[in-house]
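Q: I have 268 residues here and want to know how they pack in 3D. Can you give me a structure?
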Amino acid sequence: MDKASWGGVVLALSGIVGGLLLDGGSISQVLQPTAAIIVLGGTAGAILLQFPLPIVLEAVRGLTNVFVERPRNPHERVQELVKFANRARREGIVSLDSELEKIQEPFLKKSLMLAVDGTEPQELRSMMELELENQSEHDERVPQVFESAGGFSPTIGIIGAVMGLIQVMQHLDKMEDVGRGIAVAFVATIYGVAAANLFLLPAAGKMRIRLRQEQLLRAMTLEGVVSILEGMNPRMLETRLLGFLTEEEPPPTAEQKPKPAAAPEVPA
C-alpha cells in the first residue's frame, strides 16, 4: 500500500470538508447526484472519444500503481546481475542458461536469453533499446488518459453549472428559490475542479514517477546484461550499475546482505 497516496486523498478531502463545516455549511449542500452524473459522464465520454478503449481500460487498471506500491528494490537487481557476472566469468556465458527458468521479470529474461544464445553485444543493445523505446511510448499513454480527464472535468463542470443556471432562470417568478438554485448549480463546477486537482492530475503525476522507475530499472538491466556479455569485471559492473540509482533508492536489507563467515572455534 502506498501510504502517501492514501494519506494525500484523506488529507485533501478532510481539509475541504472540514473547511466547509467550519464555515457553517453541511455536506448535504455538495452532495448533488445530478452534478456528479454530468461531470463523470461527460468526462468519461470525452476520454473515450480521445483514446482507444484498450488504452482507457489499461489506465483504469493502472490505478493500482497509484495506491499500491509494489515492493521492488533495484539493489536486488544489481546483486542479481553481479551474481550472473561472477558465474559467467567462471563458467562462461552459456552457464547462465540454467538461470533463465528462475527469472520472472520478462525484460531481464529476454535480454539474458539473447546473451546466452550468442547475440553480439551491440546487436543485443540495439534490439532491446528498440523494445525499451516502444514500451516507453506505450506506457506514456496511460498517464495521458488522466491528464486529459483532468483537463476536461473542470470545463464539463462549468457546462453543468450553466445548465443549472438555465433551469434557475426559468423560475425567476419564485425568487425564494433562486438563491438556492444558483448554489446547487455551482456544485457541478466544484465536482469538476475537485476531480481534476485532487485526483486525476495527481494520479497522472504518480503514474509518471512509477513508469520512470520502471524504465530506469530496464535500462540498468540492459546495461548489466550487455556488460556481462562483454566480459566486464563483476566489481566494475556493480559500480557501473549503482550509478543508475539515486540516493533515495533503499539499500539492501539485512537479510539481503551476505553474511560474514563464522570465525573458527578456538579449542579450550
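Q: Anything worth noting?
A: The radius of gyration is 27 Å. Residues 121-169 form the longest helix (49 residues).
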